[in-house]
Design goal:
Length: 367
């Protein structure tokens, strides 16, 4: 795992996932081609920090204050990028406000020259990367299903995933999780009002979401309010939860789903070194078996153009601890060299996820 995370391919994906990083692309032709091809997955406009007061707010203590909306990346009481709806879906857009989505975003703290282990809570660049990448292209999947709450947190630097300094990494993840824990407690006390909850997360967010589920839901009364947990982009060992099951089908509730996307045929890298069986869900079938799902079942991904749905963009099949997909269909995809589709785990299956969470909520209310 360590060698792959430090490779130019993985670093390139991290850099593009956070498109506002203002560093020149290295003068390596292959690497440049990778960045160019990866750019098809995401495209977002660069926010004007000077004109946007959301990125000028400063905490006196350096800690998040969740009674203040500035410390929520997404909140139903303000407009944020998670409220965006792709143009083809706007005509029939109806928002359900009877269910809440608690969304934990992935790592946007990736500057290799930054020696901090945790992001500053008011770091305008990091917050903008989060909002115009993760909230726009990932959290927005859920905006018809319910009210989206996404707390800002002092996320761990991405080096925490592969450093040999385990004590520093554990401390960084604990700091991040404690912010999320505090936000969730505040949310329960002030915003939830007894509503059903969907937990949704990607990458680093999934690490924290799994921990949150263990602490607040597993074997607790709050489990009765759990519609589903979408734990995407990181492995969930089959015995991690003892009382929260993996979802068996597209309508199961009180359960979790998750997957990591790689090109069909990929067998190496860090997944091959894992000494456990991970639960993997096929987001075109919503089962955990190895049945093949053809691309025709993919109702639409969102890639570079947020306002365009790309149907049949990839197929899907569970293979061991990962999800195999075909190479995504887009103009210029022959330039795509990486077989790790981590940054598109959610985007590839945008409309399938959007429809699935609505179906699970419907079943939750029936039950």
């Amino acid at each position: 795992m360590n060698s792959f995370l430090m490779s130019p391919v993985y670093t390139g994906l991290f850099i593009y996932q956070q498109p506002m990083i203002r560093k020149p692309v290295p003068a390596n032709i292959l690497f440049a081609l990778l960045i160019l091809a990866s750019a098809t997955f995401f495209s977002c406009s660069k926010p004007n920090y000077a004109a946007n007061p959301a990125y000028k707010f400063k905490s006196e203590s350096g800690l998040p204050n969740y009674s203040d909306l500035h410390y929520w990346a997404a909140h139903p009481w303000k407009w944020d990028p998670s409220d965006s709806v792709p143009e083809p879906l706007r005509k029939n857009y109806i928002k359900d406000s009877s269910v809440d989505i608690f969304f934990l975003y992935p790592t946007s703290f990736t500057d290799k020259d930054d020696q901090r282990w945790n992001a500053g809570i008011d770091d305008s660049l990091i917050n903008a990367k989060t909002d115009y990448a993760s909230l726009l292209y990932q959290a927005s999947v859920f905006n018809a299903a319910g009210r989206i709450f996404s707390p800002r947190y002092r996320q761990a630097h991405y080096r925490a995933f592969f450093t040999s300094n385990k004590a520093a990494a554990d401390s960084a993840f604990d700091i991040a999780y404690n912010d999320i824990r505090m936000a969730f407690l505040y949310y329960l006390q002030h915003f939830n009002g007894g509503r059903p909850i969907v937990i949704a997360a990607h990458s680093q967010g999934t690490v924290h979401a799994a921990r949150l589920l263990k602490e607040f839901f597993e074997g607790k009364p709050l489990a009765n309010k759990l519609v589903c947990a979408y734990l995407v982009g990181m492995p969930t060992p089959e015995h991690y939860f003892t009382k929260i099951p993996a979802c068996k089908d597209s309508l199961s509730t009180g359960c979790f789903v998750g997957w990591r996307s790689f090109e069909k045929g990929f067998t190496g890298g860090y997944p091959a070194a894992e000494q456990f069986k991970s639960i993997v869900t096929n987001p075109l079938l919503w089962t955990t078996n190895s049945d093949y799902a053809p691309a025709k079942l993919n109702k639409g991904g969102v890639l570079r153009n947020f306002n365009k749905l790309s149907p049949a963009v990839v197929d899907a099949q569970v293979h061991g601890n990962i999800l195999w997909t075909s190479k995504p269909k887009f103009f210029g995809n022959f330039l795509l060299r990486t077989k790790n589709y981590h940054i598109a785990d959610i985007n590839f299956f945008y409309l399938n996820i959007r429809q699935n969470v609505a179906a699970r909520i419907g079943m939750f209310w029936k039950q």
